[in-house]
Structure formats: structure tokens, C-alpha cells
Amino acid sequence: MAQIVLQLPSPHHVDPAWRDTVQARLDALAKPVGSLGSLEPVLCDIAAIQGTAHPRIRRPFFLLFAADHGVAKDRPISRYGQHVTEEMVNHIASGRSVSTVLARSFDVPWRVYDVGMVSAPSHPDVRRSKVAAGTRDFTRGPAMTLDECAEAIRIGMQAVRDAHADGADLVVLGEMGIGNTTAASALSAWLLAVDVDLVVGTGTGIREQALAEKRLVVRTALSVWGEREPSFSAGDARWLAGLAHLGGLELASICGAILEAAAIGLPVLLDGVLVGACALWAERARPGVRDFLIAGHLSPEPAHALLLGELRKRPLLDLGLRVGEGSGALMAWPILRAGLDVLEGTAMFSERARSGRNVT
């Protein structure tokens, strides 16, 4: 195997004592103990990441990576053709997609990166970072070379560094690429060591015949890859090889973005199955990354619940969303912001007792 010079960063240290500190603070607020439900452990996680009893997020940043997939070129595994990637990227960059309408509504700045589209998007705000014009058909061999995969990871890492330099204190990640749920399913089956039927879903809404084709494609890709179960102590080269064979250029960039955010010490708000597969890859490659992850929502794609279970993350939303492109994570952002506001602004029982008012 060729030796690729790519240093995967290790996650920033997290002091778990801050979780206990903030949980005690939550318990002392003028509300029933535990009444914020699954939001409470997320607030504790952010406190541990930031190392403070008063966690705040003031500037979330939305980063979206786009690429095409060779396996989708001549197969009915998606409801849409590859030309839709370009169309959607132009909508996203112009603020007229579901994701960027949400981002604008919540005052979240966004950046869009072309890391591997077949065509060149026309919108001037799309950042040209193309590694290749799409991946290869991974039923015949690796989707990417090791160099291409490494370069896509570097682009994701740099995107987070740039956002952080512009004040980002939380990263929201999204993707666009026709056929990418097929790649995510293959990655999930490998990382989770489960049967293909447990991880392949309908994606953009394909019918049963196309779903059968999609399962066959994923099985074939895994067979060609040949390593049914990942070796968790295999080192960077093996993790890179698996991602290069089964993934996509935009997925590799998301993997890099997650690794870099964890290294800097930024929380990452996860979207659906695609970002979830990247998150588990990052956690496998660098254990401890999961401390920086927040599950925005639960996708109906069958792999997503398995991925979140492996990461030990509970989603903030479960609305049956399957838009992709970061939209589920963006919908979860105001919930997270509201939780932080409640933590900071709600009185303590002791304060109300001192004021002479009754608590009901």
C-alpha cells in the first residue's frame, strides 16, 4: 500500500468534570429535575468541550461539500440523475435550497465547496476545491485513489480552520451529491460490520426495484473491497484505504472537517446518515472525536440509528426528515440555542427562595 503523507489530528482534551458541574447546575434551576430531557446531556457536553459552567455558542458556521459518484452514473440507484448535483449546488449557494433557507433564517453563514463534481457549478460563491471530476465506480475498484482521498480530507480540515478564523464556535456539516447514500451505506456496513440489508435505505425515495439494485451495488463494493470487518487498530493507512474505496470526495472532506473541529475543540452538529457515517469513521480513526459530536436529528435511513447508537448519541429531533444537505442539523440548531439560553438565564431555586416568591 502506498504511503500517503497525511497527519490525522487528535481530538482536543475534554475534561468530563465539567459535565457533572453543569448537570448539577441544571438540577438546581427553577424547574423539575431532568425536565429538559435529552437536551440536558447535550448542554453538559458543550460545557465539557468549552471547559466552562456557562457554555455559549455565538457563531455557528454551515459548511457543505459537494461531489459526484461514479457508481450512480449508469445505475438506477437514485431518483435523480447526476446533473441534479450541479443544479442543487447552485440553489444552495444562492440561498434557495432547504438548507440555506434555514441557515439564512437562523443567521448562520454558509460556505459551499465543490470537491468533486462532474461539472463546474455556475454560482460564483461556490468555492472551487475540486480534487477530481467525481469518483470512480466502486463496484470495480476504489472510488478514489489514496492521494485523492487524502486531499479531500485536507480540504475539509482547511475549511474548518478557515471558519474558526472567522469566529466559528460550532460547525454544522452538510453534503450534496447524487448517489452518496449508496456510498454512505457501504461505509456504514463496513464500519458497523453488519449486513447490507440493515443499512441500505431508499435515499431520495427510490422504488423497490431500484432499492434491490442499490443493495446489490453495496454488496459488490464490499466484496471488491474485501475487508468485511475493520481492524480498529489498523492505523491511518487502513482507515484511509477503506474510505478511499467505499466513500466519496465530499464524504472524505466531511471526515476531515470533523477531525479538525475536534482537534480545535469545536462542537459539531451532525446531520443525517451521510454525516453520521463520516462521524463514525472519524471516531474509529481518532477515538475521542465523539466527545465533540451533537446529533441534530434522526434520519429514516436505516443505517442512521445504528450509527448514532455506535456513537452513543441521542438525536435532538426525530421528524422523519430526509432532505439531506445539512437541513436536519440546521433545524436542530435553534433547539440547541434555546437550551443554552435556558441554562444561562433561568433562575435557581435558591434565588427564588431568597426573593420571597413561591415556586410551584
TrEMBL record:
Any Pfam family: DBI_PRT
CDD domains (alphabetical): DMB-PRT_CobT (cd02439)
InterPro entries: Nict_dMeBzImd_PRibTrfase, Nict_dMeBzImd_PRibTrfase_bact, Nict_dMeBzImd_PRibTrfase_N, Nict_dMeBzImd_PRibTrfase_sf
Annotated catalysed reactions: 5,6-dimethylbenzimidazole + nicotinate beta-D-ribonucleotide = alpha-ribazole 5'-phosphate + nicotinate + H(+)
Gene Ontology MF terms: nicotinate-nucleotide-dimethylbenzimidazole phosphoribosyltransferase activity
Glycosyltransferase listed as a keyword: yes
Top EC class, one word: transferase
Entry's EC annotation: 2.4.2.21
SUPFAM superfamilies: Nicotinate mononucleotide:5,6-dimethylbenzimidazole phosphoribosyltransferase (CobT)
This protein's UniProt keywords: Cobalamin biosynthesis, Glycosyltransferase, Transferase
Listed pathway(s): Nucleoside biosynthesis; alpha-ribazole biosynthesis; alpha-ribazole from 5,6-dimethylbenzimidazole: step 1/2
Domain of life: Bacteria
Family (UniProt): Belongs to the CobT family.
Protein name, UniProt field: Nicotinate-nucleotide--dimethylbenzimidazole phosphoribosyltransferase
Organism lineage: Bacteria, Bacillati, Bacillota, Bacilli, Bacillales
